[in-house]
Amino acid sequence: MRVDEGEMMAVRSLVTLAALGAATAASPQTAAQKDALIAAMNDSDCTLTTAEANVVMPKLGISRPAAIALSRQMMAEGIAAFASDEETLVLLPPACTK
């Protein structure tokens, strides 16, 4: 699969933001979005590529900035990490139930 420069920059932004910040307190909306994202990732074998995120996130009502914040929070909580391709977000146990 070929990744365009915009997608790669978005992934790099996610990685950079994850490395720079700690999780912030979640609002009820953010908690609902996180739950929806976790459910969607479980439906997709606990992974989400940048290309998939570009389709899934809008369907979940999650903006790009909110997606970045959610992935950062999930990584800080130890329930998500990036795969070695730096393009795939992987949901980890116990959040991954597959």
What report would you give on this structure?
The chain has one domain (5-19, 26-91). Helices cover 57% and strands 10% of the residues. The protein contains 4 helices and 3 strands, in the order H-H-E-H-H-E-E. Helix 1 packs across helix 4 (64-76). The chain starts with a helix and ends in a 7-residue tail after the last strand.
Quick structural overview:
With 98 residues, this protein is mainly α. 57% of the residues lie in helices and 10% in strands.
Can you tell me the overall shape? globular
- Series of H and E elements: HHEHHEE
Radius of gyration: 12 Å
Quaternary structure: single chain
Low-pLDDT parts are: 17-25
Q: What fraction of residues sit in β-strands?
A: 5-15%
- Helix content class: 55-70%
- The total domain count is 1
- Structural category: mainly alpha
Counted beta strands: 3
**Overall pLDDT metric:** 82
Describe the protein's topology.
Blueprint: H1 5-20, H2 28-43, E1 47-49, H3 50-60, H4 64-76, E2 80-82, E3 88-91
Antiparallel strand pairs: 1-3, 2-3
Helix pairs in contact: 1-4
Keywords:
98 residues; mainly alpha; 4 helices; 3 strands
